Amino acid sequence: MIDQLLIVCFTIFVCEFLILIKFSKILRENFIIYKKIIKLIGFKKGSDLRKLKLILNYSKFLLTISLKMILILLVTLLLILLLNQISNTFLNLITSILGIFEITLFYIFYRQIRKKVHGKL
Q1: What's the pLDDT at 121?
Q2: Closest C-alpha among 12, 17, 2, 3 to residue 74
Q3: What is the per-residue pLDDT across 75-99, written as a single tens digit (0 to 9) for each?
Q4: Where are the domains of the chain?
Q5: CA separation for the pair 26, 32 (Å, rounded)
Q6: CA distance 33 to 27
Q7: Over 70: is that where the pLDDT of 59 sits?
Q8: Which long-range contacts (CB under 8 A, 24 or more apart) does 24-29 make?
Q9: In this predicted model, what pLDDT tens digit does every residue of 3-45 receive, in sequence order?
Q10: Cα dist. 114→15, 72, 118, 120 in Å?
């Protein structure tokens, strides 16, 4: 029973954390930069020096986005480790099929409730 309560807390925290830091915006920016790099590489016209400068700028931007994503992952892993200290079986549960299913169901349920209360996400 404690593990299910921890799953609820974990899911709410991660969901709110991702909304707070605008994770979907970070992912969108990441894909946009990748598209620009691919388009730039395929572009035959234009000087190589300009392409080099643009690719360098895009690479710097991708590095900052990647560091943000790594930080988000580390915060999430730290939360998992902290919750695992409360219940030694928490980590085993969330890595099992049943745990993933419970997290997914609760996430869908929580998003629907949050959408009704706060409006559009």
Answers
A1: 55
A2: 17
A3: 999 999 999 999 999 999 999 999 9
A4: 2-118
A5: 10
A6: 10
A7: yes
A8: 26/65, 26/68, 26/69, 29/61, 29/65
A9: 899 999 999 999 999 999 999 999 999 999 999 988 888 887 7
A10: 10, 22, 6, 9
